[in-house]
Specification:
Number of helices: 9
Largest sheet: 4 strands, antiparallel
Number of strands: 4
Radius of gyration: 36 Å
Oligomer: single chain
Strand content: 5-15%
Length: 445
């Protein structure tokens, strides 16, 4: 990285997580989940999200600031014109006309304008990286909430399917009681199990609705449509690719817009030190004026007057105000350096933590898949044995509760796996192509 300083620690050469070689393009990582609705929602968020609109407006402000700073290299020219008419007993009845122009130009002998341009260009780069980082975060938020919403929908379907089975169990228990084969205990246990499962459904419906409303806000529209899409376009929980490789830490940091933003802020604050120091150096300016005046249009340019002045000003004494401003600028640069270093450390932490989470989530999914298979077989056997009177209802209840728990655990671990994949690719800078958004002035140099 090209910065005004180097971090106070060495960037690792490799990752603790020991990832596989680079195999995936993570710029549009959400498409790797294979869910068309998620892809649609991300596209809408990129174009319609209000936080992104705010960041884009700030980028436009920074771009205007660069143009304003660069204008300091050019002279300033002001024009004037006037009409005069005298009144009174001895007044001249003719109109007095005058036109003139004033020019001012600062000669940038000691770099004041150059430093100002450098500050504004670094601020522009920071605004571009800030926009990219907001997009990275918004995209990740949309994908994670959408994955969680898919998980809520799957668990809601599980609850409804389980409730239908428990309705059958209750009917079987009633029949067996009426036949004198079991006591009312089986019926009451069946009713209790059914009511407990039924109570889960409203909570899951509310959870799904809340997540759909959050997605609606992120894509810049009122609640309602996204919930309908989630209910109409039911799909399983997205499955991420089997392997995710990534580049060396130094390369990953260059793909992180928050790190690049902190770097640009450090460059801007470093340039401000030089800008503040120029107040101690002479200021050289050229000023000039030209004008003419007459009592009529015919001889307006007969008499032309003008002047040119070269001036030098130098600060002699200000009670230490400028020195204090320099000290403040140096302190601000140290703050930016520490913030840049902290951003780097947090970026490295996020990658390592997300990689560990993804590996753990994959292991959990595999284990819960085995548990689900066993729970399904146990529930089938228990149901058939209860119908023939070989076991009591409590044993069936235990088997079906284990099945419900295994199905929900597998669904939750699948959501965790997809979410860990999103966090990892997001930590790697996914969702951004590596260049600041719409900054035609480029990065500071």
């Amino acid at each position: 990285m090209q910065t005004a300083a180097e971090p106070g620690f060495a960037i690792p050469q490799s990752w603790v997580a020991d990832p596989a070689p680079v195999t995936l393009d993570t710029v549009q990582y959400w498409t790797l989940l294979g869910d068309p609705l998620i892809t649609e929602l991300v596209g809408l968020a990129i174009t319609e999200n209000r936080d992104l609109a705010i960041a884009a407006a700030r980028l436009a402000q920074a771009r205007a600031g660069v143009r304003q700073a660069r204008a300091g290299y050019l002279p300033r020219l002001d024009g004037s014109a006037g009409v005069r008419r005298d009144f009174g007993d001895f007044a001249d009845d003719d109109l007095g006309l005058s036109i003139g122009a004033d020019a001012q130009w600062e000669i940038d002998l000691f770099g004041r304008i150059g430093y100002n341009v450098a500050v504004s260009r670094a601020e522009l780069a920071a605004a571009g990286y800030a926009l990219a980082d907001v997009q990275r975060l918004i995209v990740g938020q949309v994908v994670q909430i959408a994955v969680a919403a898919r998980g809520s929908a799957v668990r809601l379907a599980i609850a409804r399917e389980t409730l239908a089975i428990q309705d059958d169990n209750l009917q079987i228990a009633v029949w067996r009681r009426e036949a004198g084969l079991v006591s009312s205990l089986d019926v009451e246990q069946a009713r209790a199990q059914q009511a407990q499962t039924a109570a889960i459904i409203p909570a899951l419906e509310a959870e799904l609705a809340a997540r759909s409303y959050a997605l609606s806000t992120l894509i810049g529209e009122p609640p309602g449509r996204v919930l309908a899409l989630l209910e109409e376009q039911a799909r399983p929980i997205p499955v991420p690719p089997e392997s995710v490789g990534f580049q060396a830490p130094a390369e990953v940091l260059r793909q992180r817009p928050d790190v690049r933003q902190a770097e640009a802020a450090l460059i801007a604050d470093s340039a401000r030190i030089g800008l503040t120091r120029t107040q101690l150096l002479p200021l050289v300016q050229l000023t000039g004026n030209i004008g003419t005046g007459s009592a009529g249009l015919g001889n307006l340019f007969d008499t032309i007057t003008g002047g040119l002045l070269a001036g030098v000003s130098q600060l002699i004494f200000d009670g230490g105000r400028t020195r204090a401003q320099i000290d403040a600028a140096e302190a601000a640069a140290r703050v930016s350096l520490a913030n840049w270093e902290q951003t780097i450390l947090l970026a490295l932490e996020e990658v390592e933590s997300a990689a560990v989470d993804l590996r753990a989530a994959r292991a959990r999914v595999a284990l819960f898949a085995v548990a689900l298979e066993a729970a399904e077989n146990a529930a089938i056997l228990a149901r058939s044995q209860y119908e023939t009177g070989l076991i009591d209802f409590e044993t069936l209840l235990l088997a079906e509760n284990q099945l419900l728990s295994a199905r929900n655990s597998l669904a939750s671990s699948a959501v965790e796996r997809a979410s860990a994949f999103v966090r990892l690719t997001q930590a790697l800078g996914g969702g951004w192509d590596g260049e600041p958004e719409d900054t035609d002035e480029g990065t500071p140099r």
